[in-house]
Amino acid sequence: MPKEDYNQFTDNSFVSRIMSSLTPVSSNRCFGGYQKVYSHESSELKCKMNFSVYLPPQAEEKKVPVLYWLSGLTCTEQNFIQKAGAQRYAAEAGVMIVCPDTSPRGVNIEGEDDSYDFGSGAGFYVDATEEKWKNHYKMYSYVTKELPEIINGNFPALPHCQSIFGHSMGGHGALICALKNPGKYCSVSAFSPICNPMECPWGQKAFTGYLGKDKETWKEYDATHLVKKYQGPPLTILIDQGKDDNFLKEGQLLPDNFVAACTENKMPVILRMQETYDHSYYFIATFVEDHIKHHLEYLGMKS
Ligand SMILES: N[C@@H](CCC(=O)N[C@@H](CSC=O)C(=O)NCC(=O)O)C(=O)O
Predict the structure, then answer these.
(1) What is the pTM of this model?
(2) CB 3.0-4.6 Å disulfide test: which of 159, 185, 274, 302 passes with 152?
(3) Which value does ipTM take for this structure?
(4) Active-site amino acid positions
């Protein structure tokens, strides 16, 4: 694309012309690039969804790799962009960062707003099969298919150069997306992921609600089970986990189960237990640079 077109690309009027199905919500200059938010009608989720996209300065000149970030319980597309401080590193590296919301919104399912760990803000990155939820709660298809198509079709993204990372429920999401789709993501990493949802209270509640009582079907969305049968291209998984994380102490995260399963299948995994760190975005902000550098290595952009 000629340079003048890329200059236009960063102008909202041009963006809205080429993106008839995307509505600009906000645009802020950030580390030489742009932090933007869009809304759109999702065909998978059958509702209006927001996502954020950080466009590094390099995206004005050429196509760039994409990092997908999946957030945790109660989050929207805003938490990571406001709290993680990742834009500085994305700008230096020349990578785009895309953050979806964490569930369908406002779909009027009875009980959808009753708790912080199920329904709104807690889509768990699965495709629901239970009657009550299955029409809207398809976050797995949304983040692995619909959203990448939108990004690749509307932004200067290198379509075969994408990686995924996330936090807590989103760490679980990142791990299962990578493990279920060998070769689709160049690399995967996670902060405090829910590693074995079948065996923890958060996961059992979500999987019962979205997938029903048959635990065999749960295995398709449990990273500890999926990693045992992974046979795709090599993936070196990076996980950071705070040792003072209350949810770790409550048995919600179970990283040791995941590492044992990786060892069983000879899957390389780096689990860094970080003394004195908790579950918060202060922890994520501390180590996000390491995660971006990890991904650069596998996106063919070693720094
Ligand atoms: N009871 C809390 C729990 C919510 C919480 O801690 N959410 C985490 C993710 S936990 C696992 O997915 C989070 O990222 N919160 C957002 C933030 O900006 O810190 C509550 O209801 O707040």
Answers:
(1) 0.94
(2) 159
(3) 0.95
(4) 168, 245, 279
Tell me how far the alpha carbon of residue 169 lies from the centroid of ligand 1, in angstroms: 9
Question: Which residue ranges have their beta carbon within 6 Å of ligand 1?
Answer: 72-75, 79, 83, 116, 167-169, 280-281
Going from the Cα of 286 to the center of ligand 1, the distance in angstroms, rounded, reads 17
What is the SS3 assignment for the chain? Answer: CCHHHHHHHCCHHHHHHHCCCEEEEEEEEECCEEEEEEEEEECCCCEEEEEEEEECHHHHCCCEEEEEEECCCCCCCCHHHHHCCCHHHHHHHCCEEEEECCCCCCCCCCCCCCECCEECCECCCCECCCCCCCCCCEHHHHHHHHHHHHHHHHCCEEEEEEEEEEECHHHHHHHHHHHHCCCCCCCEEEECCCCCHHHCHHHHHHHHHHHCCCHHHHHHHCHHHHHHCCCCCCCCEEEEEECCCHHHHCCCCCHHHHHHHHHHCCCCEEEEEECCCCCCHHHHHHHHHHHHHHHHHHCCCCC
